[in-house]
Amino acid sequence: MYERHILICAGTGCISSGADKVQEALIKSLQEHNLQDKVRIIMSGCHGFCEKGPLFIVFPEDVFYCGVQAEDVPELVEEYLIKGNMVERLLYKDPVSEEIVINHDKIMFYSKQQRLALRNCGVIDPENIDEYIIRGGYLGLKNALKMEPSEVVEEIKSSGLRGRGGAGFPTGMKWQFCLSSEGAKKYVVCNADEGDPGAFMDRSLLEGDPHAVLEGMMITGQAINADEGYIYVRSEYPLAIQRLRTAIRQAEEYGMLGENILGFGFNFKVKIKEGAGAFVCGEETALLASIEGRRGVPRHRPPFPAVEGLWNKPTVINNVETLANVPLILRRGAEQFASVGTEGSKGTKVFALTGKVNNTGLVEVPMGITIREVVFDIGGGIRFGKKFKAAQIGGPSGGCIPEEHLDLPIDFDSLTAAGAMMGSGGLVVVDEDTCMVDLARYFLSFTKKESCGQCIPCRIGTNQMYDILEDITEGRGKPEDVALLEELATAVKKGSMCGLGQTAPNPVLTTLRYFRDEYEAHVNEKRCPALVCKPLLQYYIDAEKCIGCQRCIKACPVDAITGEKKQPHEIDQELCTQCSACFDACPKKVSAVVVVSEGLKTEEEVEVCEEGCKCQS
Amino acid sequence: MEEQLNTVFASYKGEKNELIPVLQDVQEEIGYLPEEAMREVARFVRVPESKVFGVATFYARFHLQPRGNHIIRLCCGTACHVRGASKIADRIKTELDVEVNGTTEDMKFTYEEVACIGACGLAPVMTIDKTTFGKLDPDKMKKILATFGEDAEGGEA
Q1: Is B64 contained in some domain?
Q2: What are the chain A neighbours of B51 within 8 Å (beta carbons)?
């Protein structure tokens, strides 16, 4: 009988922070004190609080230690497990109140969350099917197998579940279309091609609770009369693939996958397809092309995949998080699921909260919560006491929501109205040090690279938008550029064939809508207010502060800095490449290197040279 | 190469829809996709060579040139971008004297920029082969590169 359980987070984040070394050290230390039969170690899926990893939670008392390294383990065992003294320096300290919090459910990051899709993540050992079953796993499937397919579809319809992958299409309706489609052979496809930069909820779900996704797929199979499923997962997620393989093997051994499942005469098998690195494959028709072994290029819809999908057979494609919600609905009933959320958006949504907040990580919140609550309560506010500027929601096709909309409730419809979108659930917080024009340029650099090239508005349009944005951030912006950008963005949005092109202009349109002053500063004054766009910056050394330590001279890669030891140094503006190496090298106490953006020479000041060009020199 | 290809082909049936997994395994085995290997794959899965080339050049994870012993993948996802990934990128490029997707002259490192590794909580992040390194700054990155100094172990494809 174990007296204690220790959960160590083994998500990708915590493992790269050293969780596996903590595990080794703990095994060793427990043996040294002969505690191996009294304390059980569970390597769990992602707890969501990646920022503070590796996480080390002791049950039953629920003491939350964070940032634990292998060398801290002997102290934790001796002081805490044996003597019962808290190891204070490893406890969580609230970034705002600076108070120490012992129990993990008292930490603001967790207490405002409602973990339904992530119900097992960080709680169970994802490589052990028994732990999933003990927590009610596969009960939803059992209920579904007792029902007629149309009844299962009705249940999902009345739950109000909408697709969590981006567009928010009602899941039950999608299933209905597929069920009504003729054909003996149908497929279920799980879209785990999580390509949005800044999003990792699917990865964490697959790593932390793979059986929930499998169960969701099987219930879908029962609902649409399909006996075969594919999981299309990014090859960038090796741990997720490995845990899925283990889960499939265990489910087969238990008779949960294969023939005559649970004795109901239902057959289902699941195969894994690894992606090969193409963002556009997250689009459903492109994904199907990729499974079939072709270039992942989208096609026109209709016919929709529910009618003509994989190998031209009716196919339901659902996102990982959508599928993880399905078993819960079948187990607890549609009504309970629908009791959470807003009128048009039921249930919860998982967000990858990242960027300039204190608490980054994976959070699951009820629909309808405000952005302010997510950023300031769960996220613990902005790092280093800086000022909030915007929340970028919905990945590269999402939009930037400014401060005045912080009280916007998060649901499918209000986000779309504000020009953003739910997308897959990336929520990147940016502060005063982020340049919004540069951010728009960054997203376009991504979408233009990932455009499949098939349709012209997307292929040419994203490149043109990028070129204009690059001009603006490099000081070559012309007054007419802003209007041109707006016109182009609207045309790409209207004219593109698939979701990639239709949403790629969103970052441009929302930054233009909410941060037009930043565009104008770049274009008209050749100034970057956030001090980000390199060509618009100038570095100086404050002669009064400089102590002449020559660190910046050594750091400068282009030898632009001169000066004797103990004498103030100077930067040659002609040679300077604005790389910021001197700024970083200057000791924090001295801070003699100053960066400014006071505007390059204006049109009138620039001499027109013989060729008629307006060079800056 | 023939032997390596046969090892890969042995676990497949030679059907059209196996093209991508076969190419992935061939690359894992050889390290990249030489022209001759792609021709053989075309014959094996019975699709035109042009189709194989089309697929191999469409997906970012396929490489038609030999790569270095260690693969550096710098995450340029949004979270990493706003926390200064471009500074790390600049430093790697000057430190190793490579461009994006380039390989150092001694074939030790290949440098790639990828969209998102999904470890946004630790931004900025990079992976070298299969190890993830988080919360980077230019100096920390330089120290990590130095630990890959002398060994000549084969990396990941």
Answers
A1: no
A2: 294
Listed in sequence order, the residues at least 6 apart from B5 whose beta carbon sits closer than 8 Å to its beta carbon are B26, B29, B37, B40, B41, B44
- Our CA angle for A194, A195, A200, nearest 5°, is 50
CB pairs under 8 A between A and B: 145
Q: Which domain holds residue B50?
A: 2-58
Of A50, A197, A290, the CB nearest to B121: A50
Same domain, B16 and B77: no
Interchain pair B82, A428: CB under 8 A: yes
Whether residue B49 is found in the same domain as residue B108: no
**pLDDT 10s digits, A286-328:** 999 999 999 999 999 999 999 999 999 999 999 999 999 999 9
Query: How close, in Å, is residue B18 to chain A by CA atoms?
Result: 6
pLDDT above 90 (res A407): yes
Instruction: Tell me, yes or no, whether B43 and B95 share the same domain.
Output: no
Sort out which chain A residues have CB atoms less than 8 A from B115's CB and list them.
195, 197, 279, 446, 450
pLDDT in tens, A439-486: 999 999 999 999 999 999 999 999 999 999 999 999 999 999 999 999
Q: Is residue B43 domain-shared with residue B78, that is, in the same domain?
A: no
Q: Are A324 and A117 in contact (CB under 8 A)?
A: yes
Same domain, B82 and B128: yes
| CB spacing of B121 vs A13 below 8 angstroms | yes
Which CATH number is B85's domain given?
3.40.30.10
* Domains, chain A: 4-111 (3.40.30.10), 129-338 (3.40.50.11540), 348-431 (3.10.20.600), 436-524 (1.20.1440.230), 538-596 (3.30.70.20)
Tally the domains of chain B.
2
CA distance A560 to chain B (A): 16
Q: Looking at beta carbons, which residues of chain A come within 8 Å of B121?
A: 13, 49-51, 53, 354, 360-362
Tell me whether residue B156 is in a domain: no
Same domain, B79 and B33: no
> Are B20 and A446 inside 8 Å of each other by CB?
no
Nearest to B59 among A50, A237, A278 (CB): A278
CATH number at residue B8: 1.10.10
Q: Does B76 sit within 8 Å of A199, measured CB to CB?
A: no
- Minimum Cα–Cα distance from A52: chain B residue: B121
For B58, the closest of A53, A278, A580 (CB atoms) is A278
CA distance A193 to A319: 9
Nearest CA in chain A to B54: A295
Bond preceding residue A557 cis, omega within 30 of 0: no
Would you give the end-to-end CA distance of chain B in angstroms? 16
Residue B152 lies in a domain: no
Q: Inter-chain contact B87–A443, Cβ cutoff 8 Å?
A: no
What is the value of ipTM here, to two decimals?
A: 0.86
Give the DSSP per-residue string, B75-115. E-SHHHHHTTHHHHHHHHHHHHT--TT-B-TTS-EEEEEES
- Same domain? For B87 and B44 the reply is no
Question: Chain B residues with CB inside 8 Å of A450's CB?
Answer: 115
Cβ distance A13 to B19 less than 8 Å, yes or no, reads: no
Kindly state the percentage of chain A with pLDDT values over 70.
97
On the question of a cis peptide bond just before residue B124, with omega within 30 degrees of 0, the verdict is yes
Same domain, residue pair B78 and B134: yes
CB B32 within 8 A of CB B50: no
Whether B20 and A293 lie within 8 Å, measured CB to CB: yes
Do the domain assignments include residue B132?
Answer: yes
The fraction of chain B above a pLDDT of 70, given in percent, is 94
> Which residues in B lie closer than 8 A to residue A231 (C-beta atoms)?
none
**DSSP-derived secondary structure for A215-242:** HHHHHHHHHHT--EEEEEE-TT-HHHHH
Strands A63-65 vs A4-9: parallel, antiparallel or unpaired: unpaired
Q: Does the distance separating the beta carbons of B121 and A360 come in below 8 Å? A: yes
